[in-house]
Amino acid sequence: MDSPLASFVNVTLDILYKAVRVFGAVMLAILIGLTGIDVFMRYTFNNPVLGSNEMIQFLLGGMVFAGFALVTAHRTHIVVSIFEPFFLERAPLLYKGLISGFNLIGIIAITLIVIRYTNFQFLMQSETDILELPWGDLGVVFAVLAGVGILFGIRAIKMPKRMGIYVPPKNAVVYQKTPFSLELEEGQKYAWCACGLSNKQPFCDGSHKGTDIKPIVFEPEMSGLASICGCKRSDNAPYCNGRHKDL
Length: 247
Known about the structure:
The chain is mainly α. It has five helices and four strands; from the N terminus they run αααααββββ. The longest helix has about 40 residues, at about 5-45. It is elongated.
């Protein structure tokens, strides 16, 4: 059982996670609306929205930093590795640790750069060219988002939790060759279908009865999106480990 302090930290991070998601969604909605209005005004009345280019840049910046924090929370940064199959087969924990470590180092470095840039803008009292917004204030927003990403990255080092040594059943049916991207709730129990026969994929509906395959019952350690195995060949079940690429 988690200590009161650990529970408080987890609850706080969950609240921050939801807040960052809402912030990113709002930025995206405003960006779409502003772009549409600007295009309409520009080509219909030859009168574009004043400062629209600047505002779009700021909105994109907010989306990028919000997205950076969110993908850090789930260790879902895009990686390219020709050695991935080798390490996943022979040293999966080491591989996942290295990926998480590099992700965390990267977001710490970016946060420090943003803080340094923001401090410089405050000293120079710089403003944007058209809307005359203080660059320092905008930098604070990006720095806060990046800093929250560091907190997510620290917790994500152990996420998702490895279920132990899992040997995929040879007679399991390959349901699909892509993972499921699902919103899971912390502490709620889920039964992942291991046989591939369920009609409620990726979860169990009892179709394994009569086989020697049992579902995997698990509880997420944090709320949010998770990549759930759909091919039934992951040795990190119920989470995807990329084995579908070999099918």
